[in-house]
Model the fold of this input.
Amino acid sequence: MVSRGTTQQSSAPYNRRIVLDIIRRQGTASRKEIVDLVSLSPQTVANITNDLETIGLIRAKRASGPKSRGQPPIALELNPNAGHSIGISLEPGRVSAALVNLVGEIHSRCEVELDTHDQRRTLSAMLGLIDDLIRPASSGRLWGVGIALPGPLIETDISFVGPTALEGWKDLSIFDALRDETRLQVFYSVDSVAGALGETLFGVAKLLDSFFYLHLGVGLGGTLVINRSAYRGANGNATEIGHIPVVPGGKACYCGNAGCLERYLSLHSLAEALGVADAADRASIIAEKLARNEDPVLLAWSAQAAERLRDAVCTIENMLDPPTIVIGGSAPKVLVERLVARAQPLHHSVRGGVRSTLERILLSERQEDSSILGAAVLPIYDLLSPRLEVLQQDRRAEADVADLLGQRPVSRAGRL
Ligand SMILES: [Zn+2]
Done:
């Protein structure tokens, strides 16, 4: 689905986003192609593309190959050099960060392992990583900092509980402190929501309006994307799939229930099976075992995890009937590939047998980077994706990019 432009006077920023969105989704687009796709006049489209080119968000693509006769239409594309965004993935025991440009390319990345129970040390680790990332690339626009972390974030019985969450945290004031220290706009979100938005902007879901995103990392999360917005539920905690009990009388879960899905299908569950007690050792030991692929414990865990994945796919499909399920997260790509292969054939469901050009499961192309990329998307998602809500946003007379695109300044750390 392509969003249509609107002729209302107050909708100029919305129209600009629609034009940006078409160029991003198509890779390149001529003015005529844009006019054909939206309900805007050729003059309006010309004005908008001129504005976007002037502020450097788009650029004319250099023609390649032999020159053809006649004047070819100018192909417009997003300008990769139109600034960067910093994505930070916060997981128990590890903080990773990357500098990402406007087309989703990772410029540089770094990470540190530490005890994330301690919020002050976590803040200082984030500040250190941000400094490492922006010092060499000091010139150019910085759109802000996005942080992805395990949910649920709104206070519930199961927030900040257990080794797959940021255990012991009481609130998220750390992000206000980060904003004050860096003087950058700071956005944060549940990791599965960030990952899903990342796939929407730059990943395998670029051309999809709706899908289900399964986030396989230290824990297991999920997000339902409908019309390119994450469905949040009544309290902002929808589709916390990892804590759905699936094995009667199964393993005790830190949430207080037993047999929850993420007790069988998560990196924490694998580390536990392998006897890795320290979160700082988790990634290296799992990588080493995966490379050899002969550890009987790993093989037994994989067989059981694939069974749980097969059941989960059936439940998601029968409940929500998404066109596809995208799997991303910080889990190593080779692990996810093996689990998905082993989960075949999938169970029968409302999705099975439906003729579709889409596979029932798609793997993120950025698998191990999908958390960090999702985080980096948070500061620029509003910029690049027109959503109807922006029509209700109030705008201020500020002669900068934010005003041109109808972005509201964020006075405090904002949750996307
Ligand atoms: Zn649980």
In short: The radius of gyration is 22 Å.
